[in-house]
Amino acid sequence: MSPEQATELIAQAVYTIIQMLLVLIVPGLILGIVVAVFQAATSIQEQTLTFLPRMLLTLLMVVFAGHWLIKTLLAWFANLAQIIPGVFG
């Protein structure tokens, strides 16, 4: 395997990881900002008020985007499986 191929493989892996994590993290981040604004406006400083909605939203994102997440991961591994014989053979 040449250094260019290794770099391309690592870049694809990092891009896939970032893509999958953004689907799960960005909605929780947005909800966290909304809850923080609500807490600042009402002076409620309850820790579970920030944690529970973000946890539930992340769980819902796994449920609704799970098919896409698995499909993306399987596509990356299928690409990897096609590359591996060329590396050793």
Automatic annotation (TrEMBL):
Locations listed in the record: Cell membrane
Membrane topology summary: Multi-pass membrane protein
Transmembrane segments: 12-39, 51-70
Secretion signal span: none
Any Gene Ontology biological process: protein secretion
Cellular component per GO, a single term: plasma membrane
Pfam families: Bac_export_3
InterPro entries referenced in this protein's UniProt entry, alphabetically: Bac_export_3 (IPR002191)
The entry's keywords: Cell membrane, Cell projection, Cilium, Flagellum, Membrane, Transmembrane, Transmembrane helix
Membership in a protein family: Belongs to the FliQ/MopD/SpaQ family.
Entry-linked PANTHER family: FLAGELLAR BIOSYNTHETIC PROTEIN FLIQ
Protein name listed in UniProt: Flagellar biosynthetic protein FliQ
